[in-house]
Write a structure and sequence with these properties.
This protein has 207 residues and is of the alpha/beta class. It contains 9 helices and 6 strands; from the N terminus they run βαβαβαβααβαβααα. It is 50% helix and 14% strand.
Length: 207
């Protein structure tokens, strides 16, 4: 399927970490994603401490969290930033070190997202942020990111110990983050750039 195709810059902009690290989630909180964000925050917190880093997790959604979800966000140091206008999305992603893609592990939700790939993924990859993906390994979106090595992936097959070790390196090393982000940027440029998509579509019409 043809997903949202951003017009991509020729090169990826690099992030500085002098003011601390920032991770952002942009999208809906339905299908258990609010709880998935809290679970991910709890899971990576020890690695952030081990790395001696400072990480802000910001969530942007036009649908506000429930009172219970908001309490959970506060308990896990997640900041809810409200909804974003279309032109603000690229601005937020441009300053983020990480872009979060999360899916629920609950069976009642995975059946609804098993074959879908979020339209936000191309936008995340094109932004130059390092994608962190959290969810069941069987989901199409998780398989896309993991199979192409274009994000830091956390699934049910990973142990807390292995996650903590790998995530510590991720939060400690700008080089590790940049390598993943550059791989994602190249993938997006090859597959999702609107100019590439338009060219392929035109070729299909003319064939």
């Amino acid at each position: 399927p043809i997903m949202h195709a951003p017009v991509m810059p020729d090169s990826m902009s690099l992030r500085t970490s002098s003011g601390g690290l920032e991770a952002v989630y942009i999208g809906g909180l339905h299908l258990g994603r609010a709880n998935a964000l809290m679970s991910l925050a709890r899971l990576i917190a020890p690695a952030v401490r081990d790395a001696g880093a400072s990480l802000t997790i910001s969530v942007y959604s036009v649908s506000p969290p429930t009172d219970q979800e908001m309490a959970g966000f506060r308990a896990n140091d997640i900041v809810y930033g409200g909804g974003l206008r279309e032109e603000e999305v690229s601005q937020v992603l441009a300053r983020a070190h990480f872009a979060l893609h999360v899916e629920s592990f609950d069976d009642c939700h995975t059946s609804k997202s098993a074959l879908s790939v979020s339209t936000k993924i191309p936008e995340y990859l094109a932004s130059g942020a390092c994608v962190i993906a959290y969810g069941p390994s069987k989901l199409a979106s998780m398989r896309l990111i993991q199979a192409n090595n274009i994000g830091f992936v956390v699934t049910e097959v990973d142990t807390p110990e292995s996650i903590r070790s790998a995530a510590t390196a991720l939060f400690r090393s700008a080089e590790v983050r940049t390598q993943i982000a550059e791989a994602g940027f190249r993938f997006a440029k090859k597959h999702f750039d609107s100019r590439v998509v338009s060219s392929r579509f035109q070729s299909l019409i003319n064939s």
